[in-house]
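Action item from last meeting closed. Structure (327 res):
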């Protein structure tokens, strides 16, 4: 086994102290630029790799992130819910590995676990303001990262995934196309992201003096054809599907041509089936919640700065993609 190169090895070759080596490699101290560059070049030549965990130990970091599993997540049997959780956990594991972090799973119903937890930040993919584990983390001074929930503490990161902006953009496009009665299709699971979408839709409708027209879907979306028909029977001339069922609705509209006029317009939310929507010509608005873990890690360094006077807010990208379909 090849022995790992140490700061002492570099110091012996460079003829300086290990303190000078540390200053050069970490861009600290008052070394002359030529000395600093010579030491860096020598470290690279020797194949020096910094020990992230030793550095973390010296700075009080644990190189671990706590991923909070929402209470009742196991009761959400919908394919969409399972896909959302699986993709988000996978994104967190990949982002953590890129930063040399490990991931500790924390059930939201067990705030007591934070008493002995050795973690640098607690991450909430989905969270409510009254979450007990969130309150416990804040009380203990542990940095927290939350998706779509602003936490007014110095040591917090708020990642805005773009769900509400996406809803407003989609509704605005349907309105610009002449839609006057826009139906909103959403899952009945009561997840924070679905609440964000429905709240944004109802607020948009209220501002424009329109009565909201909401249809809720069951976990397996077995009632999708019936809910689409109900929206159309209630006078909807357009549908925004927050339930991410653009392809299914498009195909059902074709199959139900004798029941539902073909002039109904459709825009769908999209987090995973964007390519299918594009192939079918369905206009869709794409959000990227799977980018939240990486964004959180990029902001984490600043969050540990206790001199900050405000939380860090990060906005994820989203885009509205116009399809070729007349719907």
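Sequence:
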């Amino acid at each position: 086994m090849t022995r790992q190169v140490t700061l002492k090895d570099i110091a012996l070759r460079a003829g300086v102290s290990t303190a000078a080596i540390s200053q050069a490699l970490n861009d600290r101290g008052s070394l002359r630029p030529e000395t600093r560059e010579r030491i860096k070049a020598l470290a690279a030549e020797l194949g020096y790799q910094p020990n992230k965990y030793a550095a973390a130990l010296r700075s009080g970091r644990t190189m671990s992130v706590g991923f909070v599993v929402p209470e009742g997540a196991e009761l959400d049997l919908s394919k969409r819910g399972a896909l959302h959780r699986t993709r988000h956990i996978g994104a967190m594991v990949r982002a953590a590995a890129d930063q040399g972090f490990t991931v500790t799973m924390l059930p939201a119903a067990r705030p007591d676990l934070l008493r002995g937890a050795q973690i640098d930040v607690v991450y909430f993919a989905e969270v409510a303001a009254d979450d007990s584990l969130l309150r416990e983390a804040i009380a203990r001074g542990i940095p927290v990262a939350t998706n779509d929930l602003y936490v007014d503490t110095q040591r917090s990161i708020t990642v805005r995934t773009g769900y509400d902006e996406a809803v407003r953009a989609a509704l605005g496009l349907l309105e610009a196309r002449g839609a006057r009665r826009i139906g909103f299709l959403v899952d009945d699971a009561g997840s924070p992201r679905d609440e964000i979408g429905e709240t944004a839709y109802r607020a948009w409708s209220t501002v424009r003096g329109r009565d909201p027209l909401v249809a809720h879907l069951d976990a397996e979306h077995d009632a999708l054809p019936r809910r689409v028909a109900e929206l159309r029977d209630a006078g909807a001339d357009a549908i925004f599907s927050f339930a991410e069922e653009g392809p299914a609705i498009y195909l059902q509209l074709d199959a139900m041509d004798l029941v539902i006029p073909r002039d109904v317009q459709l825009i769908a939310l999209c987090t995973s089936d964007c390519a299918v929507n594009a192939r079918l010509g369905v206009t869709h608005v794409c959000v990227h919640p799977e980018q939240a873990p990486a964004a959180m890690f990029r902001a984490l360094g600043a969050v540990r700065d206790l001199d900050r006077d405000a939380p860090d807010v990060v906005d994820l990208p989203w885009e509205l993609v116009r399809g070729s379909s007349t719907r």
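Note appended to the action item: Residues 203 and 212 are 9 Å apart (CA to CA).
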